[in-house]
UniProtKB/TrEMBL annotation:
The keyword Transmembrane helix applies. Keywords: Membrane, Transmembrane, Transmembrane helix. This is Integral membrane protein. The lineage of its organism: Bacteria, Bacillati, Actinomycetota, Actinomycetes, Mycobacteriales. It comes from Corynebacterium provencense. It comes from the Bacteria. The chain crosses the membrane at residues 25-45, 65-89, 96-115, 121-140.
Length: 152
């Protein structure tokens, strides 16, 4: 009788997670990377150098909005990247934290896009994050997230 583990379990705890949870984890990581890049680009946006006095107020308002929303996206990306490993471990609290952070980030991204401040990548980020949350909240993976599992 062999005492070795199957190849699917020998690689680590993430192999024990259902395929939908692993897919959701990958989508969360992709969304977090996209949010981080988008937030950094928004935070470092340079206003035009020589606008008129009327345009200066509008540009200042847009730059302020970009910095605030960029900060929110960077914060959401950090929270998603810290909480997402708990999805693979089956921690229900981290799943909730991930869902809340993804919801805030998706609403922020859609709001930026709807106001015409953000670019066309914002709805794509919201779509990726929505798909990630739906993947880890499917009834088929409910058995994976039980109280007492995970690291928190």
């Amino acid at each position: 009788m062999s005492t070795t583990q199957p190849a699917s379990q020998a690689a680590g705890p993430w192999r024990k997670a259902p395929r939908l949870v692993r897919t959701g984890f990958v989508l969360v990581v992709l969304g977090a990377v996209g949010l981080l890049l988008s937030g950094i680009l928004m935070w470092t946006a340079e206003p035009p150098t020589d606008p008129g006095p009327e345009q200066r107020r509008v540009i200042d308002a847009v730059v302020t909005a970009l910095r605030w929303t960029g900060g929110i996206e960077i914060l959401a990306a950090v929270v998603l990247s810290v909480a997402s490993p708990g999805l693979l471990l089956g921690d229900p609290r981290r799943r909730t934290v991930t869902a809340v952070a993804a919801g805030v980030a998706a609403l922020t991204a859609l709001g930026i896009w709807a106001l015409g401040i953000g670019g066309p990548v914002q709805p794509l980020l919201a779509f990726i994050l929505a798909g990630a949350v739906l993947a880890v909240y499917r009834p088929a993976v409910r058995f994976h997230f039980r109280p007492g599992r995970g690291t928190w």
